[in-house]
Amino acid sequence: MEDSQWPVWEVFVQANPGISHKHVGNVHAVDAEMAIQNARDVYTRRSEGISIWVVPANAISASSPEDQGAFFEPSNDKAYRHPTFYKIPEGVKYL
Amino acid sequence: MIQEAKFEYLLRLGDSSLVIGHRLSEWCGHGPILEEDIAMINIALDFVGNATSLLEYAGKIEGKGRNEDDLAFMRGEREYRNLLITEQPNGDFANTIARQFLFDTYMFFLYEELKSSKDETIAAIAVKTHKEITYHLRHTSQWMLRLGDGTAESHQRLQNGVNDLWMFTSEMFDMDEVDAILIKEGIAPDLNKVKASWEKQVKEVFAEATLILPETKFKQKGSKEGKHSEHLGFLLAEMQYVHRSFPNAKW
User: Would residue A70 count as lying in a domain?
Assistant: First the structure.
């Protein structure tokens, strides 16, 4: 069946200054301007953010589920790759 | 004298926001797409919130113990002071956008002036509202361009909406003794100034949206005396039904 909906845009919202934009969902829109407005109305109605990014969903390239083993498993048994031997200074937020 | 004028003025502002907010809320579940549905209801809630603040303050100024709910739900249509344009039915989506754009533009410039009102409460409400209306106007202006400069059908529907509503626009800038008293006190702005900004903005957006400014000279007015179009009574009947059926109900 042909998709009669407008293109999908993925939405990223930054909650506070200095931290990364987080994926929150998606919206339909015909262009970037409308996508930002729709994202504002759907995802930031309750003070969730201070900045919005929208990206055409078809512009995102994703790794394939079949690659999961080859991509991610080799790191599981290499504890030295994980930064677990450092103490995190108190007062550091968003780490 | 000043208090009475202020009460009347607050009803005019508050009722316009309440009625257009209610009109927009009628789109809930009927929007052209989900995202636009949510956007319109967000905007409707902004209007109702603005009306709540204004009517609450109106009740205080009146000093007869009426709160915002009493004023919203227990007055009949002849006691309502909303502008006629705000009560006009939604029609199709283009018609709603035309109504919202013409009114949002008015509200944007009106509240810009009200931010420097000598009445501190009105000024504070205006500061908050002006931020909201800035977004509303951006939203409706975008749709004016998309529909006006869109397909032949969207253009025609928007032009029809504008033509039908045009006769209600001049009333927005009418002034009477209430305005005169409050202008003198620095509480309310001179609407001639608002009108000049409104006309300039509307012309700009119309030009970009390839719309024709209606030339009709016919004007509808009467809201300042509580004389409304036939549509308001039905709107109030629906809006007030629950409150009047179950007085003082809480949930």
Answer: yes
Determine contact: A41 vs chain B, CB below 8 A.
yes
What's the number of domains chain B is made of? 1
Cβ-Cβ contacts under 8 Å, A31 against chain B = none
**Is the minimum CB–CB distance between A42 and chain B shorter than 8 Å?**
yes
Reply yes or no on whether the pLDDT at B132 is more than 90.
yes
Residue B52, domain member (yes or no) = yes
The answer to whether residue B34 sits within a structural domain is yes
For the whole model, what pTM was predicted? 0.90
Distance between CA atoms of residues B138 and B140, nearest Å: 6
Half-sphere exposure of B72 (CA within 13 A, CB side): 28
Please report, for the domain that includes residue B212, its CATH number: 1.20.1260.10
Q: SS3 helix, strand, coil % of chain A, rounded to 5?
A: 30, 20, 50
When mean pLDDT is compared across A77-81, B106-110, B240-244, the lowest value belongs to: A77-81
Cβ pair A45:B138 closer than 8 A: no
